[in-house]
Design brief:
- The chain is α+β, with helices and mostly antiparallel strands.
- It is about 25% helix and about 25% strand.
- The protein contains 13 helices and 19 strands.
- The strands form five sheets. Strands 11, 12, 13, 14, 15, 16 and 17 form a seven-stranded mixed sheet that branches. The protein has a four-stranded mixed sheet with strand order 1-10-9-8. The chain has a four-stranded antiparallel sheet with strand order 4-5-7-6, covered by helices on one side.
- It is globular and about 70 Å long.
């Protein structure tokens, strides 16, 4: 975790500014509507932007505006026991929005709930490859025994949202949390409203109410803030970011990539996967459909995540090389003429339609038959995560992956291990490397993650990695707020000041 400070150095932190006495409601306009507000799904960006840190809280949180690393939230402190387990000491006097008291029973239930087979909690995927057993010590103390021992468990707990022990294992529609806000209105297709709580355990935020509106077009979102119809749009396109008084850029933690399903011919042939990579002119997108300050990706995690490997190079644009590989595979009987479907998520990021159409054309130009299909977020998840549909044809899923935590463990198991919920292949060496890296510490941990990154890129050719994205936000001049690396996946209202 020595590189947490380096990671945060990329973040545009909020400058020191005078205290403001203002308070009141704000309106936030987002690109995607939340299809549900389930707390254990708050690691998905379209949900996390609304409830993570606002309605739902975690035991710990990562400081993304400075270099303090993992910070207390609902746990005041923690330490590692002699047997490698972790003990968390809970904050006292905390109540959920339904009036019940937060204690160790809630922590145990919250963790066991995300691991239950009664639901499909997204946060479960971050604990793949390990067995975690919570045990109550007393009302305000919880131990977590982990096998194998996890040196970064306090960091992993930044993704486990707390719910009352009475919460059913099945998904709920109206979240109950310990955060500074509660859900007071949800009109599907129109708006979601959060209102501040008078009985919140922490400092009262200046934003008293937040109304979330949804518009897919980034120009419409930008125009709404300019016209005073909204106060904040966390995501606009570079084309609209023309006003230095209201528009801010930031290196976010999202990596745009194409997840390849290696299980279906012709994508099960490494030559075809290399051809996919060689056929795409990544550089041509920069400054056109993708911000010119975005970075070309060689890993699913952004630099300088622990273990980042500078020796791994971006695939060159080489359409003739791609054609040669396809012909070689065809000569060996690989069914290269089988139509391949790219499945993309509508309004996932600015210019997603144009980018995917351009990629489709580039892949077709080297001789592959490629179809393009756009779906909404809920349907996208069905293609992105297991169980994959039986009888499917060859598929490539276009997606963005967020890792703002500074460690590859938040990505590698569920993306690439055999048992990973989004893994499109099985490789024993990858499984072994991920297992050893997850349990290692210090320089050995960084070395192993670096080896994983190189092996996935150069030998497995696991994905088509595209861009580490740059985000643009428009913020009303009546607000004091600057976006950070975390803005795309969570937007804590308590960090917004009103002038």
């Amino acid at each position: 975790m020595r590189k947490t400070a380096l990671l945060c150095a990329l973040v545009m932190g909020t400058a020191l500014s005078p205290a403001y006495a203002g308070s009141g409601p704000i309106k936030v306009v987002l690109a995607e509507e939340a299809d549900l507000l389930e707390p254990c799904m708050a690691t998905r960006s379209n949900i996390g932007r609304i409830i993570m840190g606002n309605v739902s809280e975690t035991l710990t949180e990562l400081d993304v505006q400075g270099d303090k690393g993992v910070m207390p939230r609902l746990a005041e402190k923690w330490e590692q026991n002699a047997d490698g387990s972790w003990r968390f000491h809970l904050r006292q006097g905390v109540k959920f929005s339904d009036g019940t008291t937060f204690d160790a029973k809630d922590v145990k239930h919250s963790f066991e709930r995300i691991m239950s087979d009664k639901n499909t909690c997204e946060s479960r995927r971050y604990f793949g490859g390990m067995t975690v057993t919570p045990a109550i010590v007393d009302d305000n103390t919880v131990d977590f025994k982990v096998d194998p021992v996890q040196p970064i468990l306090p960091l992993l707990m930044t993704l486990v949202t707390m719910v009352p022990e009475e919460t059913p294992l099945e998904f709920i529609r109206e979240p109950v949390g310990t955060g500074p806000y509660k859900l007071t209105n949800w009109t599907p297709g129109q708006q979601i409203v959060l209102s501040s709580r008078d009985d919140y355990w922490g400092e009262k935020p200046e934003v008293t109410e937040a109304t979330y509106l949804f518009r897919a077009d980034p120009s419409v979102r930008a125009a709404m803030v300019a016209a005073g119809e909204a106060d904040l749009s966390p995501s606009i396109s570079q084309l609209e970011a023309t006003n230095p008084a209201t528009d801010f850029s930031y290196l976010d933690s999202e990596t745009v990539y194409l997840r390849i399903d290696h299980n279906i011919e012709p994508l099960n042939d490494v030559r075809i996967r290399r051809a996919l990579n060689l056929a795409i002119d990544r550089q041509a997108f920069l400054g056109t459909l993708v911000p010119d300050s975005a970075l070309l990706a060689t890993a699913i995690v952004p630099p300088p995540t622990l273990g980042w490997n500078p020796d791994v190079k971006v695939f060159p644009y080489d359409p003739e090389g791609a054609k040669k590989l396809i012909e070689e595979a065809k000569a060996d009987g690989v069914k290269v003429d089988t139509p391949i479907t790219i499945i993309a998520r509508s309004a996932n990021f600015p210019n997603v339609t144009e980018i995917m159409e351009a990629i489709q054309q580039q892949l077709q130009e080297v001789g592959l038959k490629v179809e393009l299909k756009f779906v909404e977020v809920a349907e996208h998840e069905q293609y992105y995560s297991k169980p994959f549909a039986e009888g499917r044809g060859p598929q490539i899923v276009a997606a963005m992956h967020d890792n703002s935590k500074g460690d590859p463990s938040f990505s590698m198991f569920f993306k690439y291990a055999t048992e990973g919920t989004q893994s499109g292949f099985s490789d024993p060496k990858v499984d072994d490397l991920i297992k050893r890296a997850s349990a290692a510490v210090g320089e050995e941990r960084a070395k192993l993650w670096s080896e994983v990154i190189a092996y996935l890129h150069d030998h497995v050719v696991a994905d088509v990695l595209l861009f580490h994205m740059v985000g643009f936000s428009r913020v009303s001049e009546r607000l004091d707020f600057k976006p950070t690396m975390a803005t795309n996946s969570m937007l804590q209202l308590s960090g917004i000041k009103i002038k």
